[in-house]
Specification:
Number of helices: 11
Largest sheet: 5 strands, mixed
Strand content: 5-15%
Strand order of the largest sheet: 3-2-1-4-5
CATH superfamily of the largest domain: Ribonuclease H-like superfamily/Ribonuclease H
Structural class: alpha/beta
Low-confidence stretches: 339-348
Number of strands: 7
Oligomer: single chain
Distance between the termini: 58 Å
Shape: elongated
Protein name: IS630 family transposase
CATH architecture of the largest domain: 2-Layer Sandwich
Length: 348
């Protein structure tokens, strides 16, 4: 079977055919001529199989290979060094290691000299890349669990007849004008946009996302001020003239009471229908409006070419109208944490 196999390694097939020809009584020279190999090859494998008689004999024997140049102690020292902060080892001006700086530091501390490529091989073998960093945001809020639990409950089980609105501001939206026109993509070619641009001004978007319907209400303003936010909240009160409104937003200063008690006065004007729910510190990602802001960024703002400052708010408001008429839907929002595991499915 091995001699006729089309999937086995060619060297194993050759050795199997060699053994079969030897069993038929052919000489070493005849076998070498038929198989196109050296007579010494025939002699070695014929003799090995004759002594053992098993197919496994045709496999290559394990080889010791070259003795390791780098001792286990040196490898461990290198990995330990890479896990530590460079500042603790005299690298005060660096925040991360490179292979070159690790090699130099290892030589300084142990006297063992390794090349940069050898350092890289050792660390890659451990799936360790000390020069790579990822962004991570930790919430130091001591009430993180309680606050997130309340927001999850509002998302998944809102009070009867109440509206849950995710409110936030997208600030610093730049109306960039490209120096040269962008090129559309084509088969086999990605689209391209000009690197150089002209700044034509910035705008801030005040927006609210209805968790139940997916509808978005937004207003563009030149600045983000408490007065602008108050005007936007008045428009929300007109949009939802009845029922309780739960507003989920972050810990920005204008979201809290000012010296004039703006939100207490605002709430009294509207029959105390508004309930303000704050996300944990450094956890604005709990706010679903952030998901919609990412859609706006990718679809409208990222590669846009605005001929004037006023073109940006027109494009944003046009996207909001199109979203509400054609695409508005609740998000399939899921949070997996050590205290809550909930999921709500919505129809698109």
């Amino acid at each position: 079977m091995l001699a006729r196999s089309g999937r086995a390694e060619a060297r194993l097939v050759l050795r199997a055919r060699l053994v079969l020809l030897a069993a038929e009584g052919h000489s070493n020279q005849e076998i070498a001529r038929r198989l196109g190999c050296h007579v010494d090859t025939v002699r070695v494998w014929r003799g090995r199989f004759a002594r053992d008689g098993r197919v496994v004999t045709l496999e290559d024997r394990p080889r010791s290979g070259r003795p390791p140049r780098v001792s286990p102690a040196t490898r461990c020292k290198l990995i330990k060094l890479a896990c530590d902060k460079p500042a603790r080892h005299g690298q005060q001006t660096r925040s991360t290691w490179t292979y070159a700086t690790l090699a130099r530091r290892l030589l300084h501390e142990t006297g063992v000299g390794l090349s940069v490529s050898e350092v890289g091989r050792i660390l890659r073998n451990e799936d360790f890349r000390p020069h790579k960093m990822r962004l991570w945001l930790h919430s130091p809020d001591p009430d993180f669990c309680r606050k997130v639990q309340r927001i999850c409950d509002l998302y998944h089980h809102p009070p009867d007849g109440a509206h849950v609105l995710c409110v936030d501001e997208k600030t610093g939206m730049q109306a960039l004008g490209r120096r040269f026109p962008s090129k559309l993509p084509a088969p086999g070619r990605a689209g391209r946009f000009e690197f150089e641009y002209v700044r034509r001004g910035t705008w801030s978007l005040f927006a609210a996302f209805d968790v139940r319907t997916g509808e978005v209400l937004g207003e563009c303003k030149p600045q983000r001020r408490a007065e602008d936010l108050l005007d936007f909240m008045e428009s929300l009160a007109r949009k939802y003239p009845t029922g309780q409104l739960y507003v989920v937003w972050d810990n920005l200063n204008i979201h809290y009471e000012g010296a004039d008690q703006r939100w207490a006065r605002f709430n009294r004007r509207h029959g105390d229908r508004f309930h303000f729910v704050y996300t944990p510190i450094h956890a604005s990602w709990v706010n679903q409006i952030e998901i919609w802001f990412s859609l706006l960024q990718r679809r409208v703002l990222r590669y846009a070419d605005f001929p004037c400052a006023g073109a940006l708010p027109r494009a944003v408001m046009s996207f909001i109208r199109r979203w509400n008429s054609d695409e508005a839907h609740p998000f399939n929002w899921t949070f997996r944490g050590h205290f809550v595991h909930t999921q709500r499915h919505h129809a698109a």
